[in-house]
Amino acid sequence: MSKELETYVWSLGKCTGCGACVACCSRGVLYFPDGKQNPDHRKLTKRFGLSTYDIDPCFGCEAFCVEVCPRLREWGEGKMVSVVSARSCLTALRSRHGDLLSDVLNQLLVSALESGFIDGAIVTDVDRWTWQPFSRVVTTESEIYDCAGHQFIWSPTLSSLNEAVHDKSLRKIALVGAPCVIDAARMIQKSKMKGLEIYGKSLRILIGRFCGGVCTHDLVSEVIEKEMGISPRNIAMMDRSTAEKLLTVTLRDGTVREISLANTQKYLRMGCARCTDYLAESADISIGYTGSRYGYCTIITRNAAGESLLTRAVQTGHLEITKSVDTNQLYIAKRNKQRRRRSQLYDEELLLMLEGLTDPEKRLEALKRYAQLSVRR
């Protein structure tokens, strides 16, 4: 029930905004209100005579939302089958609005689509007038190339899962998303609940992006539009350079403007501050810039499915790869993000303190944990 999510996820600012709970809600009452970073449920009422009563929309539901929420689980480290650097071979078929990372992702998807490995994909696109991202289902090569890809701005990627599974009847779906999105998709795949079975079986391959956090659309409206004087419709793409600690905004006329990543911190989603996964550990295949030289992307395959996807793209001439990867950079980036685990411990301590108000045993445990957290390490 959403009450559990309200208590242990939403109220603590831990929501990832992945959209899994919205997509899987059997009652169809969960949605993302404008301006909020976590879902809410629609208010339902019933009239009896002249009186109107509120109805609990979650009463007696299957609680699919709790089943698929990635923030209600502990996640371990993923396997690394292979680590390579890759770039697109087909430079003439570049993404219309995407960056280098989008080009490599596009070639993975096109190769898989042409070979029948997938019949569609859930990706991220943007409204070219407002630069508001949205989740999009693509089923053709032209649709893949037309997408802008990830633009450092948040959107609930899994919100279009129903469109892919029910409206378009896709049964071999590739999902491209941040680590939190991939975690949620993995929960859907592993679930034994009958109502989630069709979703789990329809997700064929999970492609995770390296992620240090994403911003809300306020970054566009308040910084890019108001402070920098750039109209969203003039943006061609946005790209993040972790090495240079800059967010680059490329305009349609070729002009490049830069924003310090330090100036974007206030616009990061609250849930990102609680995330410790940089390398998309639970994905079938992970991809990002870290570890590769300029012009290449790092690809980590984590199982047979991921290895098959990469091998297919290389054999069909869509990608060229090299094993020249600085794995030390990967481990440093991974370790830096894992330091956020301390904020998660404080969240758990807060919940324990609240429960301790009525339970003496939990009160004692809360005091012990607080003493441990207070010790400087």
How would you summarize what this structure contains?
The chain is α+β, with helices and mostly antiparallel strands and 377 residues long. The chain has helices spanning 2-10, 20-24, 64-68, 100-114, 141-146, 161-167, 179-190, 197-202, 218-227, 304-315, 327-338, 341-356, 360-374; strands at 30-31, 40-41, 44-48, 51-55, 82-88, 120-126, 133-138, 173-177, 203-209, 235-241, 246-251, 256-260, 285-288, 297-301, 319-322.
SSE layout and pairing:
Layout: H1 2-10, H2 20-24, E1 30-31, E2 40-41, E3 44-48, E4 51-55, H3 64-68, E5 82-88, H4 100-114, E6 120-126, E7 133-138, H5 141-146, H6 161-167, E8 173-177, H7 179-190, H8 197-202, E9 203-209, H9 218-227, E10 235-241, E11 246-251, E12 256-260, E13 285-288, E14 297-301, H10 304-315, E15 319-322, H11 327-338, H12 341-356, H13 360-374
Parallel strand pairs: 6-8, 8-9, 9-13
Antiparallel strand pairs: 1-2, 3-4, 5-14, 5-15, 6-7, 10-11, 11-12, 13-14
Helix pairs in contact: 4-10, 12-13
Mean pLDDT: 88
Largest sheet: 8 strands, mixed
Beginning-to-end CA distance, first to last residue: 38 Å
Q: Count the domains.
A: 2
pLDDT < 50 runs, ≥5 residues: none
Question: Helicity, in percent?
Answer: 25-40%
Q: Which class of secondary structure composition applies to the elements?
A: alpha+beta
Overall shape: it is: globular
Strand content: 15-25%
What is the oligomer described by this structure? single chain
Strand order of the largest sheet: 7-6-8-9-13-14-5-15
The number of strands is 15
Number of helices: 13
What is the element string, with H for helices and E for strands?
HHEEEEHEHEEHHEHHEHEEEEEHEHHH
Over the alpha carbons, how many angstroms does the gyration radius reach?
21 Å
